[in-house]
Amino acid sequence: MCRPVVWLFSLALLLAAGGGWAEGADKKSIVIGMGNFEPYFIAESETGIFTDLINAVFVHMPDYRPVYKFGFGNTALWASYEAGRIDAVTNLFDLIQLEGCRTDPVFLYRDVAITTAINAPSIESVADLAGLSIVTFQGASKFLGPEFTSVISADRYSETEKPELQARMLMGGRYDVSVGDLLIFLDARKKLRARSAANDADFPIVVHDIFPQILARMGFRNQALCDAFNSGLEKIKASGEYSEIYRRYYQEYNFTPIEH
């Protein structure tokens, strides 16, 4: 290739790259505080169910682009927002008071009771947990409400901040039932299965759907962003993309999801 042709080709590449940069530069960056629990937030690959949902919505918000900051616990997340270090928050529950606006419900949790299939007890309501030994997530006694608290027996109840430990304690037969989010449990069980020594993680499970679904929102500083986000959210729900994101993660765990 002669030198003038090479020069023209290089110039074309630079112009193309510059055009792409300019297109990105025209978008306003929105710094979003993200959580620290998988599979909803996966910092290493900037994925996870909630990340994928936000990305899908922002496709329909052409004037903005999300910039993620992962690793926040809820308290630190909300404090960073109030201090102005981030522009938006995820995982915003209705009971939390923050300045700004709230989107329509975005994020769905499904807390369930889980038992091993071997001699699985009949659990059709929260009241049926009475008399059973329970392992659950940290803070469950406050988060799941008074009905759940009323069935707790102090000497047969444990809370842990580590989902894999919670799954192992159930699979190892130390507790009758595990209570918590279904996808977090399935993710923990998958990680246990990846370890050859964790043979107890292969036990089949029974899922008891006894808790109401939990919904959380996005929080932004101004109503225009909430309106734009709600419009995009409506579009991905109408197209089926919203449900497909959840379905894809359930498929990774070889599990048929509970219908929402």
List keywords for this structure.
2 domains, globular, 6-stranded mixed sheet, disordered N terminus, signal, 39% helix, 260 residues, 9 helices, alpha/beta, 11 strands, 5-stranded mixed sheet, single chain, D-Maltodextrin-Binding Protein, domain 2
Architecture overview:
The chain is α/β, with parallel strands linked by helices and 260 residues long. It folds into 2 domains: 3-107 and 214-252, D-Maltodextrin-Binding Protein, domain 2, CATH 3.40.190; 111-208, Periplasmic binding protein-like II (D-Maltodextrin-Binding Protein, domain 2), CATH 3.40.190.10. It is 39% helix and 20% strand. The protein has 9 helices and 11 strands. Strands 1, 2, 3, 4, 5 and 11 form a 6-stranded mixed β-sheet that branches. Helix 2 links the parallel strand 1 and strand 2 (64-69). Helix 2 packs antiparallel against helix 9. The chain is globular. The termini are far apart. Mean pLDDT is 87; it is low at 1-22. Keywords: Signal. Residues 1-22 form the signal peptide.
